[in-house]
Amino acid sequence: MRALVMSEPSAGSDRTAVRDIDVPRPGPGEVSIDVAHAGINFIDVMARRGDPGYASSWPYVPGLEVSGTVREVGPGVSGVLAGERVAAFTRGGGFAEVAVADAALVVPVPETVPTAVAAAAPLMLATALLLLTDVARVQPGETVLMQAAGGGVGSAVAQLVPVLGGGLRIGTVGRAAKVAAAREQGWDVALVRDADLVAGIRSAAPAGVDVVLDPAGTTLLDVDLDVAAPGARIVLFGNPGGGTPDPLPPLGRLIGGNVALAGFSISRLTATAPARVSGALRRVVELLADKRLDVAITEVATLAAVPEVHQRLAESRGSGKYVVALQ
Questions:
Q1: How far apart are CA 82 and CA 226, in angstroms?
Q2: Which of the four CATH numbers 3.40.190.10, 1.10.40.30, 3.90.180.10, 3.10.20.740 does domain 2-120+295-325 have?
Q3: 124-266, CATH topology level
Q4: Residues with Cβ < 8 Å from 206, sequence gap 6 or more?
């Protein structure tokens, strides 16, 4: 079968190519899926760079979210049937014609939800939902700020905030050319991360922001704290630059500001609390089926085109959510 294979770590796409590999078989508690679409994510870039903990071994087939049809059910699996239309988290291997997933992380997808959209549900939509509900616990009318809001998770957050009853949505982007796209994704206010960022956020939300979602490691944490309202929740959920993040702020700054600081990792949650993750995936699929949630995606036609998308993401040139067609 065809698969996208990273032969060894690299800063570029020179070690990534489409190859023929063996078709995987599901083990106990697993299913195999004939992949229709697979989601493309920045976490693939982190694996490509060789950041610790992202590629299980080399050569490595990336891809952590797929949609398609169940091909084969492994021993001990119940509640998932061969031929069923599904979306799933994978532990890698998603950029292939056949992928294997833990049955606990597979959910059914109704015919009314296109497979291209369903492929964006696990890492993009379920992550956004868990960030807002389980971690930040957004309340009706609350203001939500998201740093680096131009990507897939950012677009999902922008769409989910009003569904959950939230209030003003403020998103930040890396350069002025991305402001219009962020507004199209649903952000009420889109600001460039420059020297005037704190002033811009305070102008939009004079009383401060209630929820801050920050995928930029700790590089923007001072900004987050400067604009946080009393009782705000700041959620850190990424380290895109790799390496060791800067130290967290002194405890006195959190106590004095009545601010809560939390961390989130969807990959760790899939390993430690799969029921919570699959529950979030089921909910976003239901929202898609009910037309209460509508997210824009960019569909890439072939596996061979994925390395260029990875490079766009690596250079912060991407916008919104990308998925690749396998069928």
A1: 52
A2: 3.90.180.10
A3: Rossmann fold (3.40.50)
A4: none
Q: Do 147 and 200 touch, CB atoms closer than 8 A?
A: no
Q: Detail the DSSP E strand segments found in 77-120.
A: 85-89, 98-102, 106-108
Which residue type sits at 6? M
CA distance 113 to 31: 21
**pLDDT tens column, 56-104:** 899 999 999 999 999 999 999 999 999 999 999 999 999 999 999 999 9
**Ranges of each domain in the chain:** 2-120+295-325, 124-266
pLDDT digits (tens, 9 = 90+) for 203-255: 999 999 999 999 988 889 999 999 999 999 999 997 766 667 778 888 888 88
Q: Tell me, yes or no, if the pTM score tops 0.90.
A: yes
173/157 Cα distance (integer angstroms): 14
CA distance 36 to 284: 19
Give the mean pLDDT of the chain: 94
Tokens of 212: 């801050």
User: How many residues does the structure list for the chain?
Assistant: 327
Rounded to 10 deg, the angle between the 306-314 and 42-49 helix axes is: 90
- Calpha distance 242→124 (Å, rounded): 20
pLDDT of residue 241: 65
